[in-house]
Amino acid sequence: MHCLVTGASGYIGGRLVPELLAAGHRVRCLARTPAKLRDFPWSGQVEVVRGDVTDPESTRRAMEGVDVAYYLVHALSTGTRFEETDRRAARVFGEEAQRAGVGRIVYLGGLTPSGVPERELSPHLRSRAEVGRILLDSGVPTAVLRAAVIIGSGSASFEMLRYLTERLPLMVTPSWVRTRIQPIAVRDVLRLLVGCAKLPADVNRTFDVGGPDILTYRDMMQRYARVAGLPKRLILPVPVLTPRLSSHWVGIVTPVPASIARPLSESLRHEVVCAEHDIETYVPTPPDAPIGFERAVELALRRVQDANVTTRWSSASVPGAPSDPLPTDPDWAGGSLYTDVRETVVDASPERLWKVIEGIGGENGWYSFPLAWAVRGWMDRLVGGVGLRRGRRDKARLRVGDSLDFWRVEEIEPGRLLRLRAEMRVPGLAWLELGVERDGEGRTVYRQRAVFHPHGLAGHAYWWSVAPFHGVVFGGMVRNIAAAASH
């Protein structure tokens, strides 16, 4: 079948595409920034259409000749008007699918608690429920899969659980740790999404999907500790931690920023347990499925330890992250610009220097004044940014679109150039370029360029306030990267 996948650069979409290909389907991806899909292992096997689900024209082009359309786009936080944006996008998607004669829509939403009025749900769960209804009413047969906590290497829910459990042997927790949850392994989610491509044409409904275990969040932390070989955790729930306070608590302890932790924790205030398992009637369940919680944790940890995490919660762009062209690009609008350019000859081959450059960040660090980078990361977290703790997807390799601490890989030319765009909270736009060149004498040269485009007076003040530290931070990077390559 011919399948359209939206959100292919995100956590679920990036894993669904190879599963659809393995099942023998043809895949087309709709992406706002096609370059983000360029370095995925499956990129050469799919067709990519540039566009956005809020734009009818590009969505219409993407729908041509499609049998099944997967709707996997919903941001955890896109500002105060996110519900209207989600509503508009779902309507465009449904209308264009109906106009193009698409045979089925498949949507992955959130499991909502039974018996709880919709007005009492968190805004994000409420929005996901509304998106599901819009697609079901589109005139195209639609399957809405509703999942609670998804357990898999790199998922936001798994990272939250992992870091809370590993870092806090004794913890004071929000009262939602007592809430019953039915988690599901990411492998089962993908299996069901693929299976929905062949649902009968008369199926137009929601399906609750979950694993075989119903646990409280407290149970999940204790079971995680057991699988990870950690001592039993002492957990003291307290009722005074509001969703806002608990999201900041999660943001301090884990790499998941408060902006994403809040909707995740808000969704845990109510019991989220499957009311039915009807999906099993349509999608055959193999002998080894569904996967239990502890087995799902074991599989996820193995991928983390083997550095084989294919997609992460941070694979999708941070809501509100800038996408303006790099200053000096032909289509740049102009304006004030600050740069810090440094270079040095390196006593190493270009290949050895590139290995150091591509390995920068995460556990490998930034080769310069670690305390300054740590302080900058904490400052970013305090104002609601992503901070330094997103780390890397892979210890040695990068691809376009990867998150890298508080940067994102905007361009990578293997052996020659790594360009990072800042996703930290700054009054302007910032890039960092690390490059490998050869001079006229054939020597290896490391070239580093920091670029900052200030926004308003605050942007200019920011640049000049940090400029005195550039010699230590950026100068240290040049010296230490060159030394690492040489050694």
TrEMBL record:
<feature type="domain" description="NAD(P)-binding">
    <location>
        <begin position="7"/>
        <end position="114"/>
    </location>
</feature>
<dbReference type="GO" id="GO:0004029">
    <property type="term" value="F:aldehyde dehydrogenase (NAD+) activity"/>
</dbReference>
<dbReference type="InterPro" id="IPR016040">
    <property type="entry name" value="NAD(P)-bd_dom"/>
</dbReference>
<dbReference type="InterPro" id="IPR051783">
    <property type="entry name" value="NAD(P)-dependent_oxidoreduct"/>
</dbReference>
<protein>
    <submittedName>
        <fullName>NAD(P)-dependent oxidoreductase</fullName>
    </submittedName>
</protein>
<dbReference type="Pfam" id="PF13460">
    <property type="entry name" value="NAD_binding_10"/>
</dbReference>
<dbReference type="GO" id="GO:0005737">
    <property type="term" value="C:cytoplasm"/>
</dbReference>
<dbReference type="InterPro" id="IPR036291">
    <property type="entry name" value="NAD(P)-bd_dom_sf"/>
</dbReference>
<dbReference type="InterPro" id="IPR021295">
    <property type="entry name" value="DUF2867"/>
</dbReference>
<dbReference type="Pfam" id="PF11066">
    <property type="entry name" value="DUF2867"/>
</dbReference>
